[in-house]
From TrEMBL:
Gene3D superfamilies: MFS general substrate transporter like domains. Keywords: Membrane, Transmembrane, Transmembrane helix. This is Major facilitator superfamily (MFS) profile domain-containing protein. One of its GO terms (cellular component) is membrane. It comes from the Eukaryota. It is a multi-pass membrane protein. One of its GO terms (molecular function) is monocarboxylic acid transmembrane transporter activity. It is found in: Membrane. It holds the Pfam family MFS_1.
Length: 411
């Protein structure tokens, strides 16, 4: 079914699409975020090292990013609805295969899960931008907030599932829950393409004697808009924005990985450490909604708003090493989570402004693919920096101990 008007409705049924995308974000990105709860169980079952088990997330994230251009291309060729439904079925298939716990098929079902997340997440966030123009920033912020809302509840829920049904049974149940992605996909009714309407309008107005030329216009217009635009990599503004994506993925996604070890190094109790992740999630959730609401006021251009949020999140990261106890670390964590949420809330909207809506689907897939390089390089690079930093401080402390006659012990 297609809408009668090609212009974004900026409301109405669009809010149904936003709620559907909200749920899809929760059943994809939030599941991936909290999947670390299965690591110990899977490691013990297969009797593997932690370094080997960690490849589960790496493979899933890699397939998620590599599948983004494929998902975007399928959205252009078919509809967002069809791709989301396919993604839901793939996500369930991955979890169902995981239920059998076959080591030989281990990477196969994580590939299915990665493709399922990619085929669900990419078109869900894309169709929201198609349904909204003036309220696009607010709609994207609400849809992306599903990741935070679901992640906040999935942690204890997954732990309960594992304790009651074991890790295999928990995977099967989660897969069944992810089938609701298909329901959300059905609700994502496609809008009529403006190129198709223009072609039909041209064909209608063409005189009878020029029927052939009218047919050519009708044939050519849809084809030009039904092709994945790889040539975006030649556009300077898109390349600059893709570079931003690489740098952001290298840095902004790393702190949560080191937040818990940092708290341990400060001597913070383990029970208090867990609350830092909750503070991070709540700050992220609030930042997305408040920034989306503010962007909807159109007081500031979205690209200028993104620049401000990047400056603020960078400042909060530079101040984070000043934390020396739980209270200060919790404050800085809250600021980081909030400004991270504000950045996530508007960066997709800015991408739509940079390339325009006709090329948005192609741009989103390419942006995700290019950004993945930063995500792959960032964590190991941060680990190297942490190792060199710890070694430098150890040497410095030993030097000071020699001069003062004291013995320094680094824990």
């Amino acid at each position: 079914m297609q809408a009668k008007d090609s212009s974004p409705p900026d409301g109405g049924y669009g809010w149904v699409v936003v709620v559907s995308a909200f749920v899809v974000m929760g059943l994809t990105a939030a599941v991936l975020k909290t999947f670390g709860l299965f690591f110990v169980e899977i490691q013990q079952h297969f009797d593997e090292l932690a370094s080997t088990t960690s490849w589960i997330t790496s493979v899933t994230i890699a397939i998620f990013h590599l599948g983004a251009p494929v998902a975007s291309s399928l959205c252009v060729q078919y509809t967002h609805r069809a791709v989301v439904i396919t993604g839901g079925l793939l996500a369930f298939s991955g979890m169902a295969l995981g239920f059998f716990g076959l080591s030989d098929w281990c990477y196969l079902y994580w590939c299915f899960s990665g493709l399922g997340i990619s085929f669900s997440w990419t078109p869900a966030i894309s169709i929201v931008s198609h349904y909204f123009s003036k309220k696009r920033a607010l709609a994207n912020a609400i849809a992306s907030a599903g990741e935070c809302a679901f992640a906040f509840t999935f942690g204890p829920f997954f732990q309960w599932l594992i304790s009651q049904y074991g890790w295999k049974g928990a995977l099967l149940i989660i897969g069944g829950i992810q089938l609701n992605i298909c329901v959300c996909g059905v609700l994502m009714r496609p809008l009529a393409s403006s190129c198709l309407l223009e072609a039909s309008h041209s064909a209608t107005e063409t005189p009878a004697g020029n029927g052939a030329s009218g047919m050519d216009k009708e044939d050519k217009s849809p084809i030009t808009h039904k092709t994945f635009n790889w040539m975006l990599v030649r556009r300077q503004e898109f390349v600059l924005y893709a570079i931003f994506g690489i740098l952001a993925a290298m840095s902004f996604f790393v702190p949560p990985l080191f937040l818990v070890p940092l708290s341990y190094s400060l001597g913070i109790d383990e029970s208090w450490t867990a609350s830092l992740l909750s503070i991070l999630a709540m700050g992220d959730f609030a930042g997305r909604l408040l920034c989306g609401w503010y962007a909807n006021l159109h007081v500031t251009k979205t690209v200028h708003l993104l620049t401000m949020t990047i400056t603020l999140i960078s400042t909060s990261l530079m101040l984070l090493p000043l934390a020396n106890n739980y209270l200060s670390l919790a404050i800085f964590t809250g600021f980081y989570g909030f400004f991270f949420g504000t950045t996530v809330a508007v960066h997709i909207t800015v991408l739509a402004d940079v390339v325009g809506m006709p090329d948005f689907d192609s741009a989103l897939g390419l942006f995700m693919l290019i950004r993945s390089t930063g995500g792959f390089v960032g964590p190991p690079l941060a680990g190297k920096l942490r190792w060199y930093s710890a070694k430098y401080h150890l040497q410095e402390e030993r030097g000071m101990a020699t001069q003062t006659g004291k013995i320094w012990v680094q824990t």
